[in-house]
Amino acid sequence: MRRRVETMQENRTKLISAARKAFAASGFAGASMDHLTAEVGLTRGALYHSFGDKTGLLAAVVAQIDSEMAERARRAGSSAATDWQRLIAEGEAYIEMALDPEVRRIVLLDGPAFLGDPATWPSQNACLEVTKQAIAKLIADEVMQLVDVEAASRLLSGAAFNAALWVSASEDPEEALPQAIAAFRLMAEGYLKVR
Length: 195
Fold this sequence. Notes:
Layout: H1 2-30, H2 33-39, H3 44-51, H4 54-77, H5 83-96, H6 101-115, H7 122-140, H8 149-169, H9 173-189
Helix pairs in contact: 1-2, 1-3, 1-4, 1-6, 3-4, 4-5, 4-6, 4-7, 5-8, 5-9, 6-8, 7-8, 8-9
Domain HTH tetR-type: 9-69
Protein name: TetR/AcrR family transcriptional regulator
Pfam family, one: TetR_C_41
């Protein structure tokens, strides 16, 4: 039984890795499941057993990349001097990831198009929980105004995600990026407590 579980996990890992490459190169719609499964020596049955369908595989790939994005954002904020600066640095780092071709194609373009509202993705909700904790602390420390934690968390997270969407879809992402970051920062600063 243990070997079977290990084999299933190995197959999942192979399929996610191959799908990640295929989705980045050809997009979700253009990626061939027959080619993808053959590339890793598996059948479509293994794909369906592990993920249900091609959309389930996309969800697994998005979750993997999304968790890597969260880690990259945490690293970007790790050297910030204050909790507020950390929150802003993480949001800005998330927006900057729109320039990463893999993030752009899989998470920002194909993810919402084929998986629906990002607010329903488990990986986005995990990020939201981290944001809620940060905002609750900032309110308790009287850095932020007294505001509903859930509302502020959803608005700030949504603003970062939508800014990244805008950057990724713009004709000139490099030009749009600083504009998106400046607007995100200005919007976020509206939450600061006036001293």
